[in-house]
Amino acid sequence: MPDFDETLQQGAVTTAQALELFDSLDGVDVDFMRGRWRGADFPTGHPMDGLLHRYGWYGKEFVDADHVHPLVFNGVGGRRYTVNPSLMPIGLVHLVPDALNSVAGRIFPWLKPVFGTRQTAARLRLTLYRGKVSAAMIYDHKPIQDVFRRVDDHTVLGVMDLKGMSQPYFFVLRRDVQA
């Protein structure tokens, strides 16, 4: 079984290596995911690697099974805000040049009135994915589900499954004990 910490320390790994690690981990139930989680990339060479952090991504917040904030960002003055994923062109990420994303990332926190929302935009359900049942976050208005596997009591490895995307996007969530 691949070791999570060793794999993470390698820096970028292949999608096949990330899938091998993901498949070796146990599933989690919906209640395990409750709370606020800080997000980090798990680089595999995916076009989204590093992108969310350029925009100030903080992580995700799971209120309960039917109320999830899938995109929590750091705003101006360090305040966190939730974003309406319906307004985010996630499927077009590979078409945007890195330089444009860098500039847009610097102004994004100032656009909270445009992208911010107090409404939840996803829910949690158990799903069978790659042979194991685990909690998955299902977006309300996007063909996306994020499936989670347990690394330890405070860490999960997530994989974003977007309809039409050629390779999955991997990320790590660590439970925010401050929340």
From TrEMBL:
Listed transmembrane segments: none
Organism superkingdom: Bacteria
UniProt xrefs under Gene3D superfamilies: GXWXG domain
All residue ranges annotated as the DUF4334 domain in the record: 121-175
Residue stretches making up the GXWXG domain: 20-75
Name recorded for this polypeptide: GXWXG protein
Organism of origin: Fluviicoccus keumensis
